[in-house]
Amino acid sequence: MTEVLFIATKRPEFGILTDTVVKFRDRDAKVYLAGTFHMEPVTEELSGAALEGVHQLPRGLTRRSTSVRRKAKASSAGMRVWLQAQRDRWLRRRALSAQVLVALDPGAVYTVWRLSQYNPTAEAHFGVAAGLRALDKLREQGTVARQAGIPALGAVAKDVRRSIDGIPAAMMRTATARPVMRSTLGARLWRSAVTAPGVPVKARVAASRYVAEGMQWAGRTSGAAIALTSAAAKIPDLAVRAELLYEGVMTEIARGISPRDLNKAVGAQLAHADEQYAKGNHEVASEALNKALFLDFHRVLHIDQLSSPLAEDAQGYIKRLHGSTAFQAVSRARGRKTPPAAPPTDRPLRLLVTTSANANFLHHILALYEDHPQVELRYLDLAAQRSLKRIAWAGRLMLEDRLADGTSDYQADVERLMRPYLDWADTVFLDWSVGPAAMLTTIDPGDTRIVVRLHSYEAFTRWPHMTDFSRVDDLIFVAPHVRDLVTSLVPQLRSESAPRMHLLDNAMELSGFVRPKSADARFNLGLIGVSQVAKDPLWAVDVLKRVREHDERYRLLLVGGDMDPKTSKATSDYLKLFERELAPLVESGAVVRLGPTDDVPGALTDIGVILSSSVREGCHVGLMEGAASAALPVVRDWPFYAGRANSARTLYPEGWVVDSPEEAAQRILDITSTEESWQKAGVLASEHAVSTWDWRVVQKQFDRLFLDEV
To answer: Could you give the CA distance from residue 136 to residue 82 in angstroms, rounded to a whole number?
Structure first.
C-alpha cells in the first residue's frame, strides 16, 4: 500500500479534503495530514475525513533559539513554516516512509521540497491533482520513479532536460530557493544546468530565469547575472539572446554593480536592432536600440558612481554604438529647409524659454527678459502639460521615427503640439539638452532660431546622441571641459552641420553673497550640495580629519538636502558608507548638518573655507557662491576631467585647485593659520568671483546671444 503525506499551512475545506482522501484511498493509498494551522477546533472534522492519521505541527518558534527566531523573522513565509516543522519527529518519520509528498497550499511547498531531500525516491508535488497523477503513474509502473515534480539537486546534473523541461513555475521556484543557491554546490549545479547541451530554448530560458531568481534571493547577484548571460550564450535566436543578456546586465545594475557583460548585452541589442532595421521592422529595431542606449548610458554606470567609462575613454566607449547601422540612421543629420530669420527690428524679439520641470538655472534669465523692452517673453514648462510631457521623454518613439525617416505618428504629434509655439517664437531657448531637445529636433523648426543649453549631467546620458543638432542653431556650454567631452562623443558636433557653440556662465547673483563673516568662520569648512554621489562628500570628510589632526577647532558644515537612497542602489550604498563615517563626527560636533536652506548667503557667513569635493562638475555653482562670500576656495581637481586640456585647473584661478586631500588640508592650514592671511585670500577670491561670474557681467553675454545680429 502507498503512503501519501499531505502538508498544509491553512485549514483545508472539509468537503474538498474528504473527497480528496477518498480518491487517494480508492487508489489503495494511506493518507496522512500534518499541518501548522490550529487543528484542535476541527479535530472532529478531520477524524471524519477518513485520514489514516493527523498531526499538529509546531505553530510557532517559542522554543527555538533567538538566532532561529531572528532568521524566521527575516525569511519568507515558506521558510518560516520549515523552521517551525523541521525538528518534528512524527513529520520526519512519515516523510521518510511516504511514496508521495503533497503540499496542499503555497506555504507548504518549501517544506515539502526540503522533506524530499531526505527521501529522494518520493514523489514531491504541489496540489492534489499533481499528487493523484503521480500516484497513478506509480501504480502503472509498479515502481517509484521521480518525474517532473520538485527535482532533487542530484537530478540536475544527471538529467538536465528531464529536470527542468515542463516543471510548473511554483515547483521550479522551490527547487531554486534561497538555501539551495546559498550553497556553492547548489549554485554550481544549477549554473551547469542552464548551459547543458541539448536543452530546448524555451526550457533553457525559463530555467535560467528561475535560477537567477533563486540566486538573487540567496544574495548572489553576480551569480544571477552569470546564470542569465551564460544561458544566453547557448541560444542561437538573436532576439531571445539579446533579451536574456539584457536581463542579466540589469540584474547587476539594479544592485548598483557595474555589469561585467555590459559589452555583450549592448552588442546583442545593437545587432538585433541592425537586423530588424534591415528588414524594415522599425518598431522592433527601435525597441532594441532603445535598450542598447539605456544600458550604455545608465546612471549607475556614469552618474551614481565615482568613475565613468566615459571619463576613461569616451571615444572608445561609444565606438560600438557608432558601428551600428540602425544608430547611424538615427544620428544622420536631417538639417532644416530654411535658415533662422534675423531678429526683428520693428517689434520686440519673441523669446520662448522652455524646459521640463527643471528651471533651477532660469530664474535670473526669466526675470531679465520679462521686463526687457526689446523682448516679449513666454515660458513653457513641458512637464506641466501631460501631452507635452509625453512626447518630450518618449525615447523609443523618437528612435522609431528616425529609423522610419520621419514617417511615424510620433512626428505628427510633435508637429501638432509644438508648431504653435514655434510659429509664435522668433527664438526658442531650451534649457538642458535632454529628452525635450531630442523631441524638438524631430521636426524642422522652420525659420525659428533654436538655442539649446547643455550643462554637465547631459554628457553622461543618451540624449545628446538622440538629438539632431543640425536643427539647433546655437549650443551653449557652461564650461570648456564639458564642451570638449560632448563634442568628442557626438560626431555631428564635429561636422559641417554642427551648430554655433558658445561658452556662457550660469546666471548667478553673486554680489549678494558679499557679507561679513562670523568670528568662528575661519575654522569652518563648508560643502554646499551633498545630494549626489558625484559630490563625493567623503573626500571632504577626509580633508576635515586631516586638518583636525592639527587643530580640533576645524569643523565641516554641510549645506543642502541628503542623497535619496531610492535614486539607485549605487546611491544607497554610498549613502550608507557616508552615514557610517559621519555618525561619530556629528556626535562630536566636528560635522554640522545644516540641511536645505533658502538662505545660502546667510549660511555662508559661517563658512570660511568652501570646498569642491566632486568627481565631476560643470562649473560648481556652490563653489562660486562660496568664493563670492570671501570663503577660501579649495577645489579638488575633478577626476573625470583631471589632466585634460580643459579641467577645473583652467576654469579657476591658479592655486584654487588641489590634487589630493593632503594638498587640500595643507592649503587650508597654511592660509587659515592667521586671520590676516585668511581674510586676504578670501577678498581676492570674492573679487574674482563677482567680477567674472556675477549676473551683471553674464547677462551681457545673453543679450549678445539673443538680441545681436548673428
So the answer is: 28
Cα–Cα dist 459/297, whole Å = 10
| One-character DSSP codes across 34-53 | EESS--GGGHHHHHTTT-SE
Q: Is 680 exposed, middle or buried (0-12, 13-18, 19+ CB in 10 A)?
A: middle
Contact predicate 706/349, CB 8 Å:
yes
Q: Distances from the Cα of 395 to the Cαs of 275, 292, 303, 404, 445, in angstroms?
A: 20, 12, 19, 14, 20
φ/ψ of residue 122, rounded to 5: -80, 145
DSSP SS3 for 201: helix
Q: Distance (Å, rounded) from C-alpha 619 to C-alpha 573?
A: 27
How remote is the C-alpha of 601 from its chain's centroid? 34
Decide the pairing of beta strands 123-126 and 555-559: unpaired
pTM of the model: 0.76
Does residue 157 register a pLDDT over 70?
Answer: no
pLDDT band at 188 (very low <50, low <70, confident <90, very high): low
d(CA 336, CA 160): 60
Q: Which residue, 607, 621, 615, 618, is CA-closest to 637? A: 615
Which positions ≥6 away from 459 have C-beta within 8 Å? 310, 482, 485, 486, 489
Q: What is the DSSP string of 349-396?
A: EEEEEEESS--TTTHHHHHHHHS-TTEEEEEEEGGGSHHHHHHHT-HH
Query: Please, what is the Cα angle at 542 between 536 and 544, to 5 degrees?
Result: 110
Tens digits of per-residue pLDDT, 634-667?
Answer: 999 999 999 999 999 999 999 999 999 999 999 9
CA distance 641 to 657: 13
* Cβ atoms of 300 and 265 closer than 8 Å: no
> Residue 291 and residue 685: Cα distance in Å, rounded?
46
Contacts of 157 (CB under 8 A, 6+ apart): 189, 192, 193
* Bridge partner residues of 350 (DSSP): 376
Between strands 53-56 and 29-35, the pairing is: parallel
CA 613 – CA 18 distance, rounded (Å): 72
**Structure confidence at residue 152 as a pLDDT band (50, 70, 90):** very low
Grid cell, residue 389, equals: 510631457
Q: Is 454 helix (H, G, I), strand (E, B) or coil?
A: strand
d(CA 98, CA 131): 12
- Helical ranges in 427-518 per DSSP H: 435-440, 480-489
Q: At what angle do helices 282-296 and 309-322 cross, to 10 degrees?
A: 160
Q: Which amino acid is at 619?
A: C
Q: Which of 437, 533, 535, 530 is nearest to 486 (CA)?
A: 437
Terminal Cα-to-Cα distance of the chain (whole angstroms): 97
82 near 71, Cβ under 8 Å? no
Residue 677's H or E segment, with its range, is helix 675-693
35 forms beta bridges with 8, 56
